[in-house]
Write a structure and sequence with these properties.
Blueprint (H helix, E strand, L loop, with lengths): L4 E3 L2 E6 L4 E9 L5 E13 L2 E8 L11 E12 L5 E13 L2 E10 L8 E4 H4 L3 E3 L18
Parallel strand pairs: 1-10, 3-9, 4-8
Antiparallel strand pairs: 2-3, 4-5, 4-9, 5-6, 6-7, 7-8
Amino acid sequence: MTDVITLGWRERLALPSLGVPVLKAKLDTGARSSSLHVEWLEVDVRDDGTWLRFQVRTTRKGGVSSTCEAKAIGQRTVTDSGGHATTRWFIQTEIELAGQSFVAEVNLTDRRHMLFPLLLGRTALHGRFQVDPSLSYSQTPRRAVREPT
């Protein structure tokens, strides 16, 4: 087994394929899938598959990305921590975290009432990272920029 990097319960990361240079994420080993907050979502069925257009909010106080586009890999039912099941679109996107770059499945949803725009679940963490809940923001993304307050 390779060395596994220890991270805190919350970290900053980048989503370079979506043009998001820095984003706060909650690392949640209790959640199977990863969830990304989108402000809005449009579905476009094309000859080469279903494509999703959406906008990511990068901060709680108004920071937004430019319009993002990604090919959908499908829809699945996700049950949240409160037991509510919803059908969500999933994409694959590149994630840069702790000097690592990897592709993970992420569902797109409304997380406006959550503290973190991205929840990174155990499927994305498995084999790469372990989470120490006593740590917080222990890593800096490679493309880190100063976050607006």
